[in-house]
Automatic annotation (TrEMBL):
Residues 410-441 are annotated as: Disordered. PANTHER family: BLL3647 PROTEIN, GLYCOSYLTRANSFERASE. Residues 16-217 form the Glycosyltransferase subfamily 4-like N-terminal domain. InterPro entries: Glyco_trans_4-like_N (IPR028098). Pfam families: Glyco_trans_1_4, Glyco_transf_4. This is Glycosyltransferase family 4 protein.
Length: 441
C-alpha cells in the first residue's frame, strides 16, 4: 500500500502530540507493515528557512519525510494564499500515485490543499484525522470562550463574542468552506468519542466517523520510584509545553496552595516555553516563584521521557480546555503512573476516576490541590490506581487499526486494497494532476 501523510509540522522542528503520533504511525506502517509513501509536513520560515527555487526540502535523513515551505496562511479561514505553491505540489502527488491520502491537520496547507490532493490522486481513498476542534472552532481549535470558559460548540452569538471585530458573515463563510472542503474526504477519524460527538453536535455526519485511539511507542516501563520506610507517593509531574492552555499556571497555583497548607510534595514541570508571549512568561515566572515546591525542569526529548517519568509518582494533566486524546496520558499509563486530570473531554474518557487516576475541576487550582493532597496522603491509593492502569495501544496496534480503516475506505470507493509487495519495490508511477481552485473570498 502506498500512503501519503499530510500535516502541518514535523516533530523534529516543533514537538507536539499530533506530529509525534502521525510520524510514529507513518513509520510503523512503513517499517512493520511494508507500506511505502511520503510524510509531507508543512513548515514556515520561523522554523526552517526556505530553500531557493523550491517549496520542498528534506526533513532529516529519511528520504520519505519532507518539508513544504508554507507561509502566507490565514488561520481564521484556514486558507493558504500561496495557491501557486500548492499547485506545484500536484505533480509530486500524482507521481506518487497514493492508494491512501491521510490528512492529519488542515493548518498551513489549508482547505484548498484538500481539493488539490483529491484532484492529483482521484482514485486514492482520502482519510482525515481530526486531532482537535480547529475545523469547527476558529479560536485555535480549543472550544474556549474569550473569558477562558469551556465552550460547548460553535454558535453565531458565541463566536461573535470571541471575535467582536469580525462580521457575522465571516463565521458562516468559514463553516461553509470547511464543510465543503471536507466533503472530499471519504472517512473521518476521531481519536476520542468525545471529539466525534462535538463534531456531530456541530452538524457533521456521524456515519463518516471512525473512532481510533492514539498510541505511543512500546517501551520498557519505568519502575516505581523506591520509597524509604514510611515514605509517601507525593511527587507530581507535568509533561508538555509550558503554556496557558495546558494549565501550567493552574498546576503552579495548586502547588503553591499545598505548600501554604504544609502538605509535603514536589511538582516537576517538564516542557519548553518556546513561542510564548512576554506577558505569559512574566505570569509563569511569578507563579513559579510563588510555588516553592515546584521546579521547572525544561524541555526534554523522547529519549529523556522514561528517566523523567521514573522520578514521578503521579502525572498531572492540568489542561484548561476539553483536550481530545493527550499522548501524555498514554505515556503515563505506559509507565504505570496514575493520572490526575480534568474530568472533561477526552481526558475524562481516557482516565477512569478512582480506577487509574483522579479527576479534578478544570481550571481550578484549589480543586486540583485537593486531588493532589488526596493522592499524597491517602494510604494505598497509588498502589490501587497504578494496579488499575491498562497498557495503552502501541504504534503497531495503531498501524493495524489504520490499515483496516484504509482497506474499508478503498472498498467503499470501489477499489481494492493493494497487496503488500514482499520485496518492497516501487510500482510504476503515473503523472496526473489538475489545478488548484482559488481560495474562497
Amino acid at each position: 500500500m502506498r500512503i501519503l501523510f499530510v500535516l502541518h509540522n514535523h516533530p523534529a522542528l516543533q514537538p507536539g502530540g499530533t506530529e509525534a503520533f502521525a510520524l510514529g504511525l507513518f513509520r510503523a506502517l512503513r517499517d512493520r507493515h511494508g507500506a511505502e509513501g511520503l510524510f509531507l509536513a508543512g513548515t514556515t520560515g520561523a522554523l526552517r528557512e526556505r530553500k531557493p527555487g523550491t517549496l520542498l526540502q528534506a526533513a532529516g535523513a529519511a528520504p520519505d519525510e519532507m518539508l513544504v515551505s508554507l507561509d502566507n496562511f490565514d488561520r481564521f479561514f484556514l486558507v493558504q494564499h500561496d495557491v501557486h505553491g500548492l499547485a506545484s505540489l500536484a505533480p509530486l502527488v500524482a507521481k506518487l500515485r497514493p492508494d491512501v491520502i491521510h490528512l492529519h491537520h488542515p493548518l498551513l496547507f489549508g482547505l484548498d490543499a484538500i481539493d488539490m490532493l483529491r484532484g492529483a490522486a482521484p482514485d486514492a481513498a482520502f482519510v482525515a484525522t481530526l486531532h482537535d476542534y480547529f475545523a469547527i472552532c476558529p479560536r485555535e481549535g480549543q472550544l474556549l470562550t474569550a473569558e477562558g470558559r469551556l465552550c460547548a460548540g460553535p454558535s453565531p452569538d458565541g463566536c461573535r463574542r470571541c471575535f467582536p471585530d469580525r462580521p457575522a458573515l465571516d463565521f458562516s463563510l468559514r463553516a461553509l468552506a470547511v464543510r465543503d472542503a471536507f466533503r472530499a474526504v471519504d472517512r473521518l477519524v476521531a481519536p476520542s468519542r468525545f471529539l466525534r460527538d462535538r463534531f456531530v453536535a456541530a452538524g457533521w455526519d456521524a456515519e463518516r466517523f471512525a473512532v481510533l485511539p492514539n498510541a505511543v511507542p512500546a517501551a520498557v516501563p519505568a519502575p516505581p520510584r523506591p520509597l524509604p520506610p514510611g515514605g509517601r507517593r507525593d511527587r507530581f509531574a507535568v509533561f508538555g509545553n509550558i503554556n496557558r492552555f495546558k494549565g501550567t499556571l493552574v498546576a503552579l497555583g495548586a502547588s503553591a496552595r499545598l505548600s501554604r497548607e504544609g502538605v509535603a510534595h514536589s511538582l516537576a514541570l517538564h516542557g519548553g516555553t518556546a513561542w510564548q508571549s512576554d506577558a505569559f512568561l512574566a505570569e509563569f515566572t511569578a507563579a513559579l516563584a510563588a510555588a516553592p515546591d515546584a521546579l521547572h525542569r525544561g524541555a526534554y526529548g523522547a529519549p529523556d521521557a522514561a528517566a523523567r517519568m521514573a522520578d514521578a509518582d503521579w502525572v498531572v494533566v492540568p489542561s484548561v480546555w476539553w483536550e481530545n486524546a493527550p499522548l501524555v496520558i498514554l505515556e503515563a499509563f505506559r509507565h504505570g503512573r496514575p493520572v490526575i486530570c480534568g474530568g472533561v473531554g477526552g481526558m475524562a474518557e481516557m482516565v477512569r476516576d478512582g480506577v487509574d487516576g483522579l479527576h479534578a475541576p478544570v481550571g481550578d487550582p484549589a480543586g486540583l490541590a485537593a486531588a493532589m493532597r488526596r493522592a499524597a496522603e491517602e494510604p494505598g491509593l497509588w498502589d490501587r490506581l497504578s494496579a488499575g492502569v491498562r497498557p495503552p495501544p502501541d504504534m503497531d496496534d495503531a498501524a493495524r487499526a489504520h490499515l483496516g480503516l484504509y482497506a474499508d475506505a478503498l472498498r467503499r470507493k470501489g477499489g481494492r486494497a493493494p497487496q503488500r509487495n514482499p520485496k518492497n519495490r516501487r510500482q510504476p508511477l503515473g503523472n496526473r494532476a489538475r489545478p488548484v481552485a482559488a481560495p474562497p473570498g
